[in-house]
Amino acid sequence: QVQLQESGPGLVKSSQTLSLTCTVSGGSITTNYYYWSWIRQPPGKGLEWIGYIDYSGSTDYSPSLKSRTAISRDTSKNQFTLQLSSVTPEDSAVYYCACSKAYNINYYPRRSDYDYWGQGTLVTVSS
Predict the structure, then answer these.
(1) Which bin fits 15, alpha (ψ -120 to 50), beta or left (φ > 0)?
(2) How far, in Å, CA of 120 to CA of 126, rounded?
(3) How far is residue 37 from each of residues 13, 15, 43, measured CA to CA in Å?
(4) What would the pLDDT profile of 30-83 be if each residue is shown by its tens digit?
(5) Which of 10, 54, 68, 80 lies most in the core, judged by the most C-beta atoms within 10 Å?
């Protein structure tokens, strides 16, 4: 059973870079055709897809966040990371890492679109 766990600071100041790490256990981030995504949910709103890094290391990002987003991985640690730059209070949200076992991009996904989810971590951006 694949398990994902987010980690990182819960409070970030405006204009700084938000950095989160997802540690994966029970499976490898290089498993063929697996896609490893970051997704967020602002308070009172729905899920928003941020981007993914796939089994080969290729990435794709939401057009609305692409200019501020970078997703990378460390295969030796079985981790992938999110960096979101120039944050504002509007970036405050619960951030999730998730895995789908096939290509599946929905800018506003449902939980059922993914096979595995982390528990989520709340990040607050202070003004």
Answers:
(1) left
(2) 19
(3) 24, 23, 20
(4) 999 999 999 999 999 999 999 999 999 999 999 999 999 999 999 999 999 999
(5) 80
